[in-house]
Amino acid sequence: MTATATRHLYLTRHGEATPDERALTDHGRRQAVLLGKRLRNVPLTAVHHGPLPRAAQTAHLIAAQLDDVPAHACEPAGDYVPHTPERDELPPDAADLLLDFVHRVPADERADGPRLAHEALERFTGPVPGAEDRHELVVTHNFLIGWLVRAALDAPPWRWMGLNHDNAALTVLRYRPGFPASLVSYNDTSHLPVV
Fold it and tell me: Does the entry feature the keyword Hydrolase, yes or no (predicted)?
């Protein structure tokens, strides 16, 4: 079936996590609830989330604020390095800093990252088949949000780095048939209290 409808992709990073990253803090839970309340009037059809507890807890707290929108774990929405750059891809003045940063991430998160990043692009981006627009939320981690925003803007693969997303902030991408992807909003925290 030909892609003839618009996809509206809502992206958020999990709420604030405990130091061991195994759960949300009280503040993180509140962030998730507030984001869910903000999204109540959006016609979401699904809440996808990464498999780690902090993303799953965030997704379920958001979904609890919505009317019958299923939340389910999805490996491509997980926490991983989507692309490990070579030195010659990077701006010379930032290469050492960026390579040091990416190589501090555990090797297993770097090794499987490119496959998962490709799956995320296949699953979450581009126009959709049918006549009805689709609205989906992905509760994920900073790296994947940077990767998807980078792809929407057709930036070089290494440019996922340096795009930092706040906990429970909202980014929206739009994919209309026949048009380039649009960055509608980025890192919007207007639903969260100022701390």
Answer: yes
Residue 109: inside a domain: no
How far is Cα 100 from Cα 108, in angstroms, rounded to an integer?
16
| pLDDT at residue 159 in the model | 97
Residue 177, classed as helix, strand or coil, is coil
Q: What is the mean pLDDT of residues 185-193?
A: 97
CA distances from 132 to 44, 45, 114, 136, 172 (A): 12, 11, 31, 13, 18
SS3 assignment, position 30: helix
pTM over 0.90: yes
Q: Where does the pLDDT of residue 3 fall: very low under 50, low under 70, confident under 90, or very high at 90 and above?
A: low
Residues 6+ apart with CB under 8 A from 161: 85, 98, 101, 102, 146
Where residue 180 sits, what CATH number does that domain have? Answer: 3.40.50.1240
- Among residues 186, 148, 195, 192, the alpha carbon closest in space to that of 32 is found at 192
